């Protein structure tokens, strides 16, 4: 696992069997993020110096985000910090695929998660309870990747004693029982989990599927360029490990005359689950003896109850 040393801002690779206590950052990516190569090109001493005429790397706003996050983690007593933008080698498709498939586990294993809402201003002067607050309108609540980061991070439990947990549930649609850790994800139906992502967006079409692999506890290779097929593959992976038939409880978009558009058996996007109303446990959608269904390139086969 790649971790950033909060004192020197050096990225080190830690073996999975000896991962130390670490903090992690949840944020939305901007146009001036610092890559692993860029942070490695700067000496530790240079990283904390703001020159009068900064070069291309030191002038990026992403470096300020890294500095401030590392400082906060140090103040909280953490020597290590995980930041996806500068800890992952995105030029390596193999490393990127491994990181994305491990991301949920990384957030779940962190001692604390810092959520950086760059567009939430005047938090001291406004109440997040206000509908018009910048907190509620932050992009952090609408991006695909931050959904699993919110759900996986254990530190959310620390704020469960006040109304903030209820507010997070209201904004995101995620059950309070999931946010406070009293309910496991596998106790929530597939359709309900899909609905959480129905209002989320990603820069790349494929990422709306890749950002959900941890929430459904599946793994899949990354094939950028496949478009909406990525979401189809995600559902196929879910079907391999779950008999929860609520996966099919979606509704496609309507045509101009009000009729539903023709579609296949699997949904093309999480948006198709936005009208799911009843949150039922997975067992409600499983066959009596949990017979698995099977899929080929030509057809989907369901078992027949004896």
UniProtKB/TrEMBL annotation:
Family matches, as InterPro entries: DUF8212, HET
Region named Disordered: 284-306
All residue ranges annotated as the Heterokaryon incompatibility domain in the record: 22-122
Superkingdom assignment: Eukaryota
Residues of the DUF8212 domain: 229-253
Biased amino acid composition, Polar residues: 284-300
Protein name in UniProt: Heterokaryon incompatibility protein-domain-containing protein
